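In response to the reviewer comment on reproducibility (Comment 2.3), we provide here a single inverse folding case reported in full, input and output, so that an independent group could reproduce the run without further information from us. The structure tokens appear first.
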């Protein structure tokens, strides 16, 4: 007898979705169905009251969900993003609706000086820096790695991993004991898809970077961890794959669907607070049941 597919018990969308594609960098408002960032569900408990967080890629997707959750936990937020002004403005509205301050700053985090300026602005205008969330990333699928153009290859590495070095080098000297760094890696670090080989390679580097950096900054009282998402419904996905692939996105996970950004936000909150004070150098998966190996 064929085993029935297990569907979620709540209202999370299950594929098939409408076939859709977007041009980079993608727009949250144009997704079908819209992503859930926790707008109607996340309830804060004051666990980050008066802390300051710098979040890259905070205009949409996981970054927006984390910004919303941090704000509802009492944090002020600097939201770094590339050039998606309308999406970033929506993130700012969500943070300010939670009663917290929000700075939205566009620019290329692959540029070292821009990274340093982000840290300076967060520290100077918001008063301190307690949490750095290195979340921004770029990917694009190709039928063969032979098709990856040199400029795209360099852009992916600059955005996804070199920016983390630049941001952490600028941030660590300004962070107090008890501060945290949270990096977004991916299940691709452990289970690389050939069509995303440059992206997967950077995610493997992020996992290694996380484990190594955690050892060095422990003596400063700073913890470093990473979240490894599986298939999460974000604009990055819709701009990266063909329409027919997007229609079935996440359907091959044990849970039978992609995750929503808002489902990951509590994990970032946990890693940012003292609830995780004995956890550092870890990569924690949120993969819909797919193993991280």
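Designed residues, in position order:
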């Amino acid at each position: 007898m064929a085993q029935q597919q297990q569907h979620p018990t709540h209202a999370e969308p299950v594929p098939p979705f409408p076939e859709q594609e977007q041009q980079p960098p993608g727009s949250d408002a144009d997704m079908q169905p819209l992503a859930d960032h926790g707008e109607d569900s996340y309830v804060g408990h004051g666990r980050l009251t008066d802390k300051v967080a710098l979040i890259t890629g905070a205009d949409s997707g996981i970054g927006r969900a984390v910004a919303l959750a941090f704000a509802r936990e009492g944090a002020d937020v600097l939201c770094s993003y590339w050039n998606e002004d309308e999406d970033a403005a929506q993130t700012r509205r969500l943070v300010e609706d939670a009663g917290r301050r929000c700075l939205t700053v566009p620019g290329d985090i692959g540029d070292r000086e821009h990274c340093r300026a982000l840290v300076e602005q967060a520290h100077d205008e918001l008063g301190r820096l307690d949490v750095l969330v290195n979340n921004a990333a770029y990917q694009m699928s190709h039928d063969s790695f032979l098709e990856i153009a040199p400029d795209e290859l360099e852009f992916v590495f600059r955005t996804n991993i070199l920016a983390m070095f630049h941001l952490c080098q600028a941030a660590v000297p300004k962070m107090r004991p008890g501060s945290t760094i949270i990096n977004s890696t991916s299940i691709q670090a452990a289970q690389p898809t050939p069509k995303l080989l440059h992206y997967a390679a950077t995610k493997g580097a992020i996992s290694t970077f996380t484990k190594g950096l955690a050892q060095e900054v422990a003596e400063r009282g700073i913890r470093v961890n990473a979240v490894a998402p599986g298939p999460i419904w974000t604009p990055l996905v819709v701009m990266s794959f063909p329409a027919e692939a997007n229609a079935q996105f996440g359907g091959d996970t044990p849970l039978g669907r992609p995750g929503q950004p808002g489902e990951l936000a509590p994990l970032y909150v946990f890693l940012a607070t003292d609830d995780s004070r004995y956890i550092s150098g870890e990569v924690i998966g949120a993969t819909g049941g797919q193993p991280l190996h």
